[in-house]
């Protein structure tokens, strides 16, 4: 089972994101505040993949990404026009989302 966390303070958008991507063998877990995800890392194995919003309460998505192990694949989701971020993400996805792009990325990730 693949474990995928989505960390975004926009609850409605996160719910739609999960509903569109749900499939057998994939467990999605939403977090609406970065501290909740950090706390979960203390009690649970790090996820295989995380989708992180750039603008979060109390810290940026970049700061949050640094708290996850290198083995976790990290995707930054942003509405920022500039994608010159000083941290390596496996992929940067711009809002509004192209869900076909997200589905293709996820399908390729699952194949690995």
Q: What portion of the residues fall into strands of 2 or more residues?
A: 25-35%
Distance between the termini: 13 Å
CATH class: Alpha Beta
The CATH superfamily label reads Response regulator
Oligomer: single chain
Largest sheet: 5 strands, parallel
Helix content: 25-40%
CATH architectural grouping: 3-Layer(aba) Sandwich
With strands numbered from the N-terminus, the spatial order across the biggest sheet is 2-1-3-6-7
**Total helical segments:** 4
Mean pLDDT over the full residue set:
92
**Pattern of helices and strands:** EHEHEEEHEEH
Gyration radius, to the nearest Å? 13 Å
Q: How many strand segments? A: 7
Structural domains: how many: 1
Return residue spans where pLDDT drops below 50 for at least 5 consecutive residues: none
Structural class: alpha/beta
Please, could you describe this protein's structure?
The chain has 112 residues and is α/β, with parallel strands linked by helices. It has a single domain, classed as Response regulator (Rossmann fold), CATH 3.40.50. It contains 4 helices and 7 strands; from the N terminus they run E-H-E-H-E-E-E-H-E-E-H. Strands 2-1-3-6-7 form a 5-stranded parallel β-sheet. Strand 1 (2-7), helix 1 (11-21) and strand 2 form a beta-alpha-beta unit. The longest helix is centred in the last third of the chain and has 13 residues, at 99-111. The radius of gyration is 13 Å and the shape is globular. The model has no long low-confidence stretch (mean pLDDT 92).
């Amino acid at each position: 089972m693949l474990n995928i966390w989505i960390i975004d303070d926009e609850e409605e958008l996160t719910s739609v994101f999960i509903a569109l991507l749900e499939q057998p063998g994939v467990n999605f877990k939403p977090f609406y505040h970065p501290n909740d995800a950090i706390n979960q890392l203390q009690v649970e194995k790090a996820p295989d993949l995380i989708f992180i919003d750039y603008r979060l309460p109390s810290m940026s998505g970049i700061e949050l990404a640094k708290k996850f192990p290198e083995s976790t694949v990290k995707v930054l989701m942003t509405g920022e026009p500039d994608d010159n971020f000083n941290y390596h993400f496996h992929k940067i996805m711009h809002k509004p989302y192209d869900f076909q792009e997200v589905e293709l990325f996820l399908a390729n990730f699952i194949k690995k």
